[in-house]
Structure formats: C-alpha cells, structure tokens
Amino acid sequence: MFFTLIATEHVFEHSYAANILGFDDTNLIDLNWYVFAGIIAGCAFTYFTFAIRKWRYKTMTAIAFGLAVIYLAYFYFVIDYGVEKEMLFVPLPLFIRGAGAVIISIVFLTSIVQSGLPFQVFPQALRGCLITKVKT
Asked: What is the model's pTM?
C-alpha cells in the first residue's frame, strides 16, 4: 500500500522533471543521489530506533507513512502552474521518499522473518503476503 501511494507521484515527478523542466538523463540520475542519501539515513534511523531501542512495529510504520504523507503533500500543495523552476529542485522530498521507503521495507521484512518462516519458504511467503495485501 505504501509503494502504491507514492508510485503515482514518483512517475509524475520524473515526467515533470524530464518533459516540463527539460532535465536531461544526467540531471535525472543526479536526483537519485538525494534518494540514496535518504535510504542511508532511513537505514541508520531504523537501526538505532528499531533494532537498538526496540521501537514497536506500529510506531515505525506510522513514521514511514508520515514521511510518505510529507512527500505527497509537497507535490500536491507546492507544485502548480505558476511555480518557479528553482523551487522544484529541492532535495528534501526525494530524501524523504527514500527514507520512508527503506523504513517500511525493513519493518515489514523483519516482521516476516521474525514470524518463524524458514528461509526456503520465505520468498513464497513474501509473495503470498503481497498478494493478500493487494486483494484486500
């Protein structure tokens, strides 16, 4: 559900940067460094809070969805027809998207692993979990 929420904005963000702002492939790739920095920060945050301080799954899920809401709110409420080009080259939303995505991934993969599944059936259980979540 998390990745479904941010998928539309991610496609919009890429199309907007490429077609309207005229960013070439090199500039679009350079934007991924901000996402990578968010992934590193999200991993560090999750390690210190989830692994060491033993925060709960619900708390970590709420934080990840909160980051997704911030990312989506930026694109829904900041971008309009009169926005200046310089305003769109802000690394914060990309950083937030990377951090939120890695936090939710680590939390849910950890919950599947801790459920006691052996490694041999882990891919099937992960697939079944994803299909069940999509159907509901």
From this structure: 0.76
Helix axes 57-77, 2-15, angle to 10 degrees: 30
Count how many domains the chain has: 1
Q: Which residues of 57-94 are buried (b: 16+ CB within 10 A; e: fewer)?
A: eeebbebbbebbeebbebbeeebeeeeeeeebeeeebb
Owning domain of residue 16:
2-135
**What are the pLDDT digits (tens) for 78-127?**
776 666 666 666 678 889 989 999 999 888 888 777 777 666 666 666 66
8 A C-beta contact, residue 71 and residue 117:
no
Q: Which helix (H) or strand (E) holds 43?
A: helix 25-46
